[in-house]
Amino acid sequence: MGDKGISLRHLVRSVYNLSRTFFFTPEYDLVYRQIQIFLSRNSKSPSSIVERMPTKGYYRINKNSTAAKQLMLEFGECEEKS
What we know:
Structural class: mainly alpha
Order of helices and strands: EHHEEH
Largest sheet: 3 strands, antiparallel
Helix content: 40-55%
Distance between the termini: 23 Å
């Protein structure tokens, strides 16, 4: 979502919609809670893969994280091969 990050609400809605299938619909509250736990665990230190934004409830990928740099590198390599 860029440098401004993405709100928790929008992130949950996207993951929830991607998780739904014709035969299975997850509980929205469960998806919300799992994402909330993931973000809280992975945004605590300055080297975490996710960082909190100054605006409450917004998150983005931490560009200073080595794990995030590796993910961006791998994603970039996949795009070039296509």
